[in-house]
Amino acid sequence: MNFFPLRRALVLLSLCVGMLPPAFAADTYQVVHTYPHDQHAYTQGLFYLDGHLYESTGLNGQSSLRMEDLETGRILQLQDVPAKYFAEGLAPWGSTLIQLTWQDHVALVYDRATFRFLHTLPYDGEGWGLTADDKEMILSDGTATLRFLDPTTFKVLRRVTVRDHGLPVTQLNELEFVQGEIYANIWHSDRIARIAPATGKVLGFVDLTGLLPQSERSSPEAVLNGIAYDPVHDRLFVTGKLWPKLFEIRVIPEKAKPASPPHKK
Fold it and tell me: CB 112: neighbour CB atoms within 10 A?
């Protein structure tokens, strides 16, 4: 979520002890279109609605809520977040926008049309990513647990543990609900996990290695983070923190490998 050494050390530790899923065959991607993106935006939340992108950017003193033009990347509407908050995930609910904060235990609720601040909603623990289905908000907090929340009170309705082949998948970050599945960025990786909402089972991974070359990343924290889906036109968009580009991609399912030929003595 940020560049603090402790958080990075935890990522390395989780890799060492096997808390992140093992590498294996995954879906790949094809770039359909490339759009400009504000390379100074520390992207924490992203979604697409009614022809526009909505984005939450983080860091204390730099956090913001934005509505943007997809084609040009131009900011059409902007609300700065008070400096005491480190903004995180973002999702719409009805006529409102709900924006998480990292460690302040409150979500900020805005009027979607005007960006006028309305009130806060409390929650325990950290806030990382946020999305919604047609009944509940879904929150990630960096652990393997996803919380399903009442959208009006943020009361926890249920929890699921995200697992791949029985192992918990941690570092779940920005979320998006896509055709009945939860897509989750895995922090400090180039992978997106596809998760079954009912069980937390990982249905597969999307490997986005090479989407933005390391040479175009301005810092070690310029990592993949930002998923937006346009259900009307079936378009999937991805970007990252401090990335100068946003990509429309097509996911290419991993094909079954052909059987190995018989071994000849």
Answer: 17
Contact 26, 205 (CB under 8 A): yes
Give the pLDDT confidence of 78-89 residue by residue, as tens digits. 999 999 999 999
Task: Assess contact for 129 and 142: CB atoms under 8 A.
Answer: no
> Which of 245, 184, 149 minimizes the C-alpha distance to 20?
184
pTM of the prediction? 0.87
Domain assignment present for 9 = no
The CA distance from 83 to 96, in Å, is 22
The count of structural domains within the chain is: 1
**pLDDT tens figures, 40-68:** 999 999 999 999 999 999 999 999 999 99
**Residue 28 placed within a domain:** yes
119, 107 contact by CB (below 8 A): no
**Range of the structural domain that residue 237 is part of:** 24-251
